[in-house]
Amino acid sequence: MSEAPFIPLNALHALALVAGHGALRPAAEALGVTSGAVSQHIRRAEERSGLALFERTPKGLVPTRALLAVLGDLDTGFAALARAQAGLMAPDQGRNLLTVTVGNVFASRWLIWRLGDLGATHPEIELRLLTTGTLVDLGRPDVDCGIRFGAGDWPGVEAEPIGTHAVFPVCAPALAARLKSPADLAHVPVIMDQASMLSWPDWLDAAGAPGLKLSGPAISDPALAFDAAIAGQGVLLALGIMAEYALERGQVVAPFETITRSRFGYWFAWAKGRQLPARTRKFRGWLLDQMNACEDATRKAVAKRAS
């Protein structure tokens, strides 16, 4: 009697991750492999099962009814494996290792400058940063928490806002000299950050210049957009906490006093249902303290310029 075809464990894991994300790339990030390797896992699973497991649609990969029927068992099984792995670790093994997934911009513009303070405040924490431009699965057993940009509404994730999501324009000091009122923005380059999701129309409405026509370079990388503002290439609508370091050092100034609030911003995030260990709670407390101090400094910088 012949044995039933065997679907490798890695292929089953790929099926569960792709079903959850609807795309190959996030699953590849979570598994630490290429998108091509994930695609091969899916192909192998479909060949061995004799079933189509995904529908290829313009909106991504959608699980078929056959895969949906077993997804609960797959999720339960991988959760049990994660618990088993944790149970095999020595009591002190990895107790102080904190793995945080964070976007490149937040890491380079904000977090990296404060890691010395984290080390001084919590020397017992061994920090490991996973910096990436894509979302990492927070349910992975090797990831403790993340700092994400967005509206805080990710499925399967608990999210706590970091800061007040204050938004205002910034630019190089020389360019600010040409700005006497918000209406002057029509006569200078305005940098269009295509990735930040911050709203110029909302800010212009609050500043008393609704419908003002703006023009300038469009940049898809938020870090490059900020570098362009520092270099005097235009005025950038920025999240206050990300501008604080450059404001403090005089690289940019806030030419106007109007501040708006965006629903998009940075969030401290962790997998729903996960109990946060002491190292994660300590990091969260430190992060919020640093954010409060950052926002105080930012408000003072904006008020000083306005006065």
Q: How do the helices and strands line up, and which of them pair or pack?
A:
Layout: H1 9-21, H2 24-31, H3 35-49, E1 54-57, E2 60-63, H4 65-87, E3 97-102, H5 104-109, H6 115-121, E4 126-131, E5 145-150, E6 157-161, E7 166-170, H7 173-176, E8 190-193, H8 200-206, E9 218-219, H9 222-230, E10 235-239, H10 240-248, E11 260-261, E12 265-271, H11 278-306
Parallel strand pairs: 3-4, 3-5, 8-9, 8-10
Antiparallel strand pairs: 1-2, 5-12, 6-12, 7-10, 7-11
Description:
- Helix 1 packs across helix 3 and helix 1 crosses helix 4.
- The strands form three sheets. Strands 4-3-5-12-6 form a five-stranded mixed β-sheet. Strands 9-8-10-7-11 form a five-stranded mixed β-sheet.
- It has eleven helices and twelve strands.
- It is globular.
- It starts with 8 loop residues before the first helix and ends with a helix.
- With 307 residues, it is an alpha/beta fold.
Task: Note the main attributes of this structure.
307 residues, alpha/beta, five-stranded mixed β-sheet, 42% helix
Global outline: globular
Radius of gyration: 23 Å
- Through-space gap between termini: 86 Å
- What is the helix content? 40-55%
Largest sheet: 5 strands, mixed
Based on helices, strands and strand pairing, what is the structural class?
alpha/beta
Overall mean pLDDT: 85
Order of helices and strands: HHHEEHEHHEEEEHEHEHEHEEH
Number of strands: 12
Compact overview of the structure:
The chain has 11 helices and 12 strands. The protein has 307 residues and is of the alpha/beta class. The chain has a 5-stranded mixed β-sheet with strand order 4-3-5-12-6.
